[in-house]
Design brief:
Elements (H helix, E strand, L loop, with lengths): L8 H4 L25 E5 L7 H12 L3 E7 L18 E5 L2 E4 L3 H12 L7 E8 L4 H5 L2 H11 L4 E6 L7 H24 L12 E6 L13 E3 L8 E7 L5 E7 L9 H6 L3 E6 L7 H10 L6
Helix pairs in contact: 2-6, 3-5
């Protein structure tokens, strides 16, 4: 059975179709003393990937105080992995940019512990990713994993991805990263307008944003926004062929099922921006928890 979560009321504000820019980024930020909003920017494609550079430039131009702490190399598919090595290589190639030789989780951990040691950022933005992170792709995504790492430490976080459900084409997808970053700016401004108790999002709640590629060149505007759940289907299915020498050949196929109603796949297919509230834990909703409690009633060691 597909699990259901009760969405906090603050998340429902994101259902409004037109997310418009309202307050300037240099206005007093939630929980701050008057400076610009402070953002830790990360990703899983690496610190020099076009998506994170476009996002960095857009948010910086808007007046936010953005510091990039991202993987040194491509870490796509790293999920929530955090390395257990006793040392880590960290480079500081330019002002406000740190490159961590590890996963998105490692990058966020280093950023919060060292780069933002004096005071946590107001927000962690992870992306924008090259390609979508919907359905089962989100579960194993390093982009989403970076956001989860921030949520685990109590910092509001947004994962952002650009792409449709077909194989990403480079130029249109990169072009679509600009409207993706423009939308992210509008989203952050909306969260600022409705921030309560000094937080941009309710405690323990993050957002997984998927922006479709619109038009042949990718420069078009999405049709709408949709507050969604995560589609339960898994797109990628691996088949294994025994080579007879202890190794197995791996073929990964894309297998799509009908989109679940109200979920992220349906929204992106409809050329809408999907916004899915996410949590840093794997707790089920109250209904599923109660069903499980009944199933296990009376069980003893």
């Amino acid at each position: 059975m597909r699990r259901k979560r009760v969405l906090p009321p603050a998340a429902l504000l994101l259902c409004v179709p037109a997310l418009g820019v309202s307050t300037p980024a240099t206005a007093s930020s939630p929980g701050d003393t008057g400076g610009p909003l402070r953002i830790l920017l990360t990703n899983d494609d690496g610190y020099n990937a076009p998506g994170i550079r476009i996002m960095f430039d857009r948010l910086t131009t808007a007046g936010y105080e953005v510091t990039m702490v991202a993987p040194l190399t491509n870490q796509s598919g790293a999920g929530t992995k955090i390395s257990s090595a006793s040392t880590v290589t960290v480079k500081h190639p330019e002002p406000r940019v740190w490159a961590v030789d590890g996963t998105p989780g490692d990058s966020v951990a280093f950023g919060l512990s060292e780069v933002f040691a004096d005071r946590a950022p107001d927000l962690v933005v992870s992306g924008t990713n090259f390609g979508p992170n919907v359905a089962g792709l989100a579960t194993h995504s390093g982009t989403v994993g970076g956001a989860i790492a921030a949520l685990e430490q109590g910092v509001p976080a947004i994962a952002v991805s650009t792409g449709g459900l077909s194989a990403p084409v480079y130029e249109p997808t990169v072009n679509a990263m600009k409207p993706t970053s423009d939308f992210t700016l509008k989203l952050i401004d909306r969260l600022k307008d409705h921030a309560t108790s000094g937080r941009l999002l309710p405690e323990g709640v993050g957002l997984n944003v998927n922006h479709p590629v619109i038009g042949k060149d990718g420069t078009g505007t999405a049709k709408d926004t949709a507050l969604t759940t995560q589609d339960p289907q898994q797109f990628l299915k691996a088949d294994y062929t025994d080579n007879g020498d202890g190794t197995w050949k791996v073929n990964v196929n894309v297998v799509q099922q009908p989109a679940a109603k109200g979920a992220d796949v349906e929204a992106v297919n409809a050329l809408k921006v999907s916004i899915t509230p996410i949590s840093p834990d794997w707790n089920t909703g109250p209904y599923t928890f109660a069903r499980t409690a009944t199933l296990l009633s009376g069980l003893r060691p």
